[in-house]
Amino acid sequence: MLASTLRAASTAAVRRCTSSSSAAALAIRAYSSADSDFNYYQHKKVAMTGPRFEQTDLAQQPNPTPAIDLIAQEPVRKVNTHCGPLGHPKVYINLDQEGPHKCLYCGVRFEQEHGHHH
C-alpha cells in the first residue's frame, strides 16, 4: 500500500515538473520505477557490520579469570587427621578412597595423606 501511494505521488510530481527541473524529474522517475516490494521496515542491502561503537575493542576490555579456573589452580590439600573440617565448611567429605575429593560447596580438593592410618 505504501509503495502504491509513493508511486502515485511521484507520478503526480513528475507531471507537475517543468523542463527546467529535469534532474528532479529524473530522480523521481527513478524512484517510482523502484522494486514494487519496497517497504519502510525492510532491511537495507548495505548495513553496518562493524561494532556499534568505535571505542569498543574487546582485546582491551578486562577479562578476569573465572572462579572455577582459579579453584582448579588451587593445590590439593593433604589431610592427616580425622579431626573435622579444619577451616572448611562443616560438611563431611569421605577421604577413605584414594585420590582427591572435591567439596560440593567450594570446589577445593582434599586428599588423605599417604601412609596415614585410619
TrEMBL record:
State the Gene Ontology BP annotations.
Answer: mitochondrial electron transport, NADH to ubiquinone
Please list the residue ranges annotated as the Zinc finger CHCC-type domain. 84-110
What are the GO cellular component annotations? mitochondrion
List the PANTHER family. Answer: NADH DEHYDROGENASE [UBIQUINONE] IRON-SULFUR PROTEIN 6, MITOCHONDRIAL (PTHR13156:SF0), NADH-UBIQUINONE OXIDOREDUCTASE 13 KD-A SUBUNIT (PTHR13156)
List the protein's name.
Zinc finger CHCC-type domain-containing protein
